[in-house]
Amino acid sequence: MENLPDSTEKTEITDDLPPGAERRLVQRLLAHWRSIRHEGALPRFSDVDFSDNPDIETHSFVVDLEGVTSAPTFVGVGEELAAHLEAPLVGRPVSAAPNDCLPGAAIAYMDEILDKGAPVSRGGELVTADGTTLLYRSILLPMSDDGETITGILGAANCRIVEHAELLAH
To answer: DSSP of 88-116, one letter per residue?
Structure first.
């Protein structure tokens, strides 16, 4: 896939994590989300801090559920995810995200998070528009302005390219 950054093929997020530290992006983001909850209330976007995990921010996206449009809308997409897109998603409804890109695959289960009011993580195989097969993990996290009503979603996804030999082995 010629438009992907070189880092896409790496299976580890970073090599400089301390021994025993969680390396999976979705698990680290979930741990951060849990740490910013206030007495069981849903976290606010203003409490999110990626300074200790800058790689999470580049693999994340934000969806506004209460904005000026009537449809949930992307209001932010990290650099690594944006590199996988043929067209920008910021300012566009989630329905505009193609199913064959990481944000599109991740946001596909948005209704589940809205029904449960709790984080949902999924992973799987994704074939991109150019035929590249990716193995991905994603997470959607409910966010709130008042601690109760879900007003936005913080999502993240990362992947690795499945090599041709791996496909033949299955």
So the answer is: --TTSBGGGS-TTSHHHHHHTTHHHHHHH
Query: Strand ranges (DSSP E) for the chain?
Result: 60-64, 73-77, 120-127, 133-144, 150-161
Question: In order of start, what are the domains of the chain with their CATH numbers?
Answer: 20-169 (3.30.450.20)
| Model pLDDT for residues 47-70, shown as the tens digit of each residue | 999 998 899 999 999 999 987 667
Rounded to whole angstroms, how far apart are CA atoms 66 and 72?
7
pTM of the model: 0.82
**How many other CB atoms are there within 10 angstroms of residue 39's CB atom?**
5
- Burial (CB < 10 A; 0-12, 13-18, 19+), residue 75, is middle
pLDDT tens for each residue of 106-153: 999 999 999 999 999 999 999 998 999 999 999 999 999 999 999 999
Tokens of 164: 């041709």
Beta strand 120-127 pairing with 133-144? antiparallel
